[in-house]
Design goal:
The chain is α+β, with helices and mostly antiparallel strands. It has 6 helices and 9 strands. The protein is globular and about 85 Å long. The protein starts with a strand and ends in a 10-residue tail after the last strand.
């Protein structure tokens, strides 16, 4: 249920009113919607894999030499098939998280290795957008699921690249505290309005309605980041950066058997 209180100025003075709303039916509809979306996403993966493979073969000349205009169309179709695959994977990941089926393979490992893998994944997009990625080695160790932490880094840095002006830099920083490591992704983009800094981590949330059309994506990336970090016992938030831009920061355990301190 949802309970809300609010202040009312009435002729007889200041009053406090409130109401209680039953959310049971709304939650059930939401559950059914998620199950339907996940089921459809599973069914889409097989034909999409075949489409991507066929387009890739055409682009490489398996069906004969293509005219330049035809090659451009095939390459565009292949890029969009890849984009659709990323969206489907995001939906399936989020469904596993929501269902409690996402298991973590925790281990102690160098944070620099996860950052290096992330750089390999985003370097092409960064180069195309004219964005520099700055990540100095930290020598820090973290405890968690390496692949999922890499996924968080890729999501955050990819978002920073999308919304950063050309010829600026995205910086990855990390600091060791008593029980945890704090990782920061800093950009010089347009920033996040204060009233959206909490809700931006929700499902299908965008700063502007046109963002999904202009930049692509599923609208689930930040929600997945929050869920993964939360499963590690950490927190994630976004703050304004002095001089313009945003700082997305999250915490991870520094070693096994330690709880992440609240900040």
């Amino acid at each position: 249920m949802s309970v809300q209180f609010y202040e009312v100025q009435a002729p007889e003075g200041r009053l406090i009113a409130g109401h209680v709303r039953d959310l049971s039916q709304e939650r059930e509809v939401d559950r059914l919607k998620k199950r339907f979306v996940a089921s459809v996403s599973h069914e889409l993966r097989t034909p999409l894999t075949a489409i991507r493979g066929s387009l890739g073969l055409l682009a490489k000349g398996a069906g004969g030499e293509l005219a330049s205009e035809a090659r451009d169309l095939v390459n565009m179709a292949e890029r969009n098939a890849v984009r659709l695959g990323v969206i489907i994977n995001d939906i399936l990941d989020f469904e596993r998280i929501e269902s409690g089926l996402l298991s973590l393979a925790r281990e102690q490992f160098p944070l620099d290795e996860a950052v290096s893998s992330m750089l390999d994944a985003v370097s092409g997009a960064a180069s195309e957008a004219g964005i520099r990625i700055l990540a100095e080695p930290t020598g820090l160790q973290v405890y968690g699921d390496r692949a999922r932490i890499e996924q968080v880094l890729v999501n955050l840095v990819s978002n920073a690249i999308k919304f950063s002006p050309m010829d600026t830099a995205v910086e990855i920083q990390a600091t060791r505290h008593a029980t945890h490591v704090e990782v920061r992704v800093c950009d010089r983009g347009r920033g996040i309005p204060p009233d959206l800094r909490d809700t931006i981590f929700g499902m299908f949330r965008q700063v502007e309605d046109s963002d999904a059309r202009r930049h692509g994506g599923s609208g689930l990336g930040l929600a997945i980041c929050r869920a993964i970090v939360g499963q590690h016992g950490g927190t994630i938030r976004v703050d304004a950066r002095e001089g313009g831009g945003s700082i997305f920061q999250f915490t991870l355990p520094a070693r096994a058997g330690t709880a992440v301190s609240a900040r």
